[in-house]
């Protein structure tokens, strides 16, 4: 009998495979800073994940432009680093959010 992967057993137990997949994707997305230069990485945060689309937030339109130019490369690098079939990431969406009070 073949051993099941832990995520397969968890998906069956929870009954919501999309939820387990989203949790894996959000965990993987925490490494996004490894693929960006320091200036960009400091101004970016992971906001959401929805059926393959990683949503990133940044504080300025300039950072958003930088991220949009790198979006395809980010998707490729994340999928290369965290391989799954089908791939976890299909797109990156960027939102511009002003910093919260008390944040730089």
Structure overview:
The chain has 104 residues and is of the alpha+beta class. The chain has one domain (7-96): 2-Layer Sandwich (GMP Synthetase, Chain A, domain 3). The protein has four helices and three strands; from the N terminus they run αααββαβ. A three-stranded mixed beta sheet has the order 1-2-3. A hairpin with a 2-residue loop joins β1 (44-50) and β2.
What is this entry, summarized?
The chain is of the alpha+beta class and 104 residues long. The protein has helices at 6-14, 17-29, 38-42, 61-81; strands at 44-50, 53-58, 91-96.
- Which stretches of 5+ consecutive residues score pLDDT under 50? none
Strand content: 15-25%
Q: What is the CATH C-level name? A: Alpha Beta
SSE order, one letter for each helix or strand: HHHEEHE
Structural class: alpha+beta
Q: What is the overall silhouette? A: globular
Rg estimate, integer Å? 16 Å
Largest sheet: 3 strands, mixed
For the biggest β-sheet, the strand order reads 1-2-3
Helix content: 40-55%
Overall tally of domains: 1
Give the CATH topology. Answer: GMP Synthetase, Chain A, domain 3
CATH architecture: 2-Layer Sandwich
**N- to C-terminal separation?**
55 Å
Put simply, the count of helices is: 4
What does the average pLDDT come to?
A: 83
């Amino acid at each position: 009998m073949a051993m099941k992967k832990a995520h397969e057993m968890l998906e069956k137990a929870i009954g919501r495979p999309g939820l387990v997949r989203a949790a894996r994707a959000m965990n993987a997305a925490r490494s996004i800073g490894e693929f960006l230069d320091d200036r960009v990485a400091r101004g970016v945060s992971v906001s959401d994940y929805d059926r393959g689309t990683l949503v990133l937030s940044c504080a300025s339109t300039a950072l958003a432009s930088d991220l949009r130019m790198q979006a395809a490369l980010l998707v490729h690098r994340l999928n290369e680093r965290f391989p799954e079939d089908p791939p976890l990431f299909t797109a990156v969406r960027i939102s511009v959010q002003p910093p919260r009070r008390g944040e730089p």
